[in-house]
Amino acid sequence: MNEVSVFWQKRLIAVMVLVAVTLLNANGAPVFAQDEELKKRIEILEEKTRDIERMDEEEKGRWEELTGHVETLERELTMVDYRTGRIRALEEKVGALTIGGDLSIFLQGVLTNAEGLGKKADGSYSGDLFLIVPSGPYGNIYLRGDIGQGEGISPLLPPTFSGPNADLHVGESNKPEFELVEAWYWTSIPYPDIRDQRLELTLGKIDPAALFDANAVANSETSQFIADIFVNNLALEFGGAGLSAAYRFTSIYNKGLNVTGRVGLFEGDGDFKDVLDRPFLIAELDVWRPYYGLNGNYRIYGWQNNQSHTDLADESRDNLSNQGVGLSIDQQLSNDITLFARYGMQDKDVSPFDQVLTLGGQIVGNGWRRANDMIGIALGASHVSDKYQEASLTLDGYEADADYENYIEAYYRYWANQNLSISPDVQYIINPGGDGEKDNVFVYGIRMQATF
Questions:
Q1: Among 81, 407, 378, 408, CA closest to 217
Q2: Is there a contact between 61 and 54 (Cβ–Cβ < 8 Å)?
Q3: Which of 100, 144, 154, 101 is closest to 124 using CA atoms?
Q4: Mean pLDDT throughout 75-99?
Q5: What is the per-residue pLDDT across 119-151, written as a single tens digit (0 to 9) for each?
Q6: Mean residue pLDDT across the chain
Q7: Mean local confidence (pLDDT), 315-330
Q8: Cβ pair 159, 398 in contact under 8 A
Q9: Which of 154, 336, 342, 445 has CB atoms 3.0–4.6 Å from 108's, for a disulfide?
Q10: By the 8 A CB rule, do 448 and 420 touch?
């Protein structure tokens, strides 16, 4: 029943009640001569009518709020950037060939008192084109090509653990070159039965960050936070091409809980040499559970990268591995507010920072009648490892005497139309690279993303 029909039904009920009370008193007798009592009853009815009108205004507000939420959902469903396409290719069988892409342009500047930097700005861009092809009764093939150019402001900054732009695509010559960055096959397997398919496999040139350490509001540098520290866990050393298998422990008919285990075996450093000789291994447990209709995702994982690593304090020990554990959480507090948290820990013997914690949230713009707009705010801290503090002067030419590099980022994503969003963004770095003597760095910028 729509809002208009509800409105007129309430008006009709009010008129019928008024007529009935006017014609009859409590005993069923005519009341035309009982002016005082009639006036009282009319006053009561008028108050009830005002209550109904107030209810109508409240319902109108709720309706507008609901409409805003629907617009936001439609925006997310129709958005065709490569991450949305990739998620669809991993979660469901597409019915027909799907093609889409996006273009992201960044302009960032830096303000700092550090010698030789001052006020400078630089830009970069990247473009993605993806294709999803149905394959077999339960599978999809996913292909994504990428082109990009620009170093951004990264070379202008002092050494930092987190870069200011996770979308940089800089080759040796800094010239735009088209590259096939993802090419994989995904399929579900009808086990234990065709209706409840719990097992899935993914094989090929995969970005492991597409499968592991996911987060609803802090996982896309083209539409959410831009800095490395908020896109993925800094204390997680991803590998390259390989394979992954996942199994859902809960039934598809359980609408209130989803528990999935996922394991992956990938080439260790992305150069396609010795693919299985020194691999990157990871295992993750994902739990999804709604609370009063508000989604919550909880992911915990452990990993090991067997590529050769050098002990920070002893260069002769150059055949070590790196390993760690991590946690990624996102939880809705309301239809408009979602909070997130990440924590990661890695081997302090081979890593400049051994622990990373990030906290933040996203606010949907329903409150200011911009249902597709979003605000994001996040705080991060990277703990400097003891060994790096001791060896930093020899390794990088400065003393990492601070305990943490702290990072702050905030953005506003404004949807100009159905296919174009513009995002002003600010970042603030405290103790860059763990150097307490370095001046803090303020990064400002703007991101434009066009999707098709």
A1: 378
A2: no
A3: 154
A4: 76
A5: 688 888 999 999 999 998 899 999 999 988 888
A6: 83
A7: 92
A8: yes
A9: 445
A10: yes
What is the residue-wise DSSP string for 338-379? Answer: EEEEEEEEE-TTT-SEEEEEEEEEEEEEGGGTEEEEEEEEEE
pLDDT-based confidence at residue 117 (cuts at 50, 70, 90): low
Residue 396 · residue 433 · CB < 8 Å: yes
Q: Give the span between the Cα atoms of 367 and 377, in whole angstroms.
A: 17
Let me know: does 157 contact 110? Beta carbons within 8 Å: yes
Structure tokens at 121: 């700005």
Give 251's contacts (C-beta < 8 A, 6+ positions apart): 196
Q: pLDDT tens digit string along 223-249?
A: 999 999 999 999 998 887 889 999 999
Q: Is 121 helix (H, G, I), strand (E, B) or coil?
A: strand
Residue at 104: amino acid letter: S
Q: Which two tokens stand for residue 311?
A: 């002990």
**In which band, very low, low, confident or very high, does the pLDDT at 399 lie, cut at 50, 70 and 90?**
confident
**358 closest CA partner among 425, 404, 401:** 404
Element (H, E) at 305: strand 296-309
Asked if residue 49 lies in contact with residue 21, where contact means CB atoms within 8 angstroms, the answer is no
Question: Do 123 and 105 meet the contact criterion of CB atoms below 8 Å apart?
Answer: yes
Please give the single-letter amino acid code of residue 414. Answer: Y
CA 45 to chain centre: 52
Residue 341's nearest CA partner among 442, 237, 215 is 215
Contact 352, 400 (CB under 8 A): yes
Q: Which residues contact 397 (CB under 8 A, 6 or more apart)?
A: none
Classify the phi-psi angles of 270: left when phi > 0, otherwise alpha if psi is within -120 to 50, otherwise beta. Answer: left
What is 234-274 written as a DSSP string? TT-----SEEEEEEE-S-TT-TT-EEEEEEEEE-SSSS-SS
Q: What is the pLDDT of residues 204-222, one digit of tens each?
A: 998 898 899 999 999 999 8
Q: In sequence order, what DSSP letters do the residues of 84-118 get, joined into one string?
A: HHHHHHHHS--SS-EEEEEEEEEEEEEE--STTTS
Of 269, 434, 236, 229, nearest to 352 by C-alpha is: 434
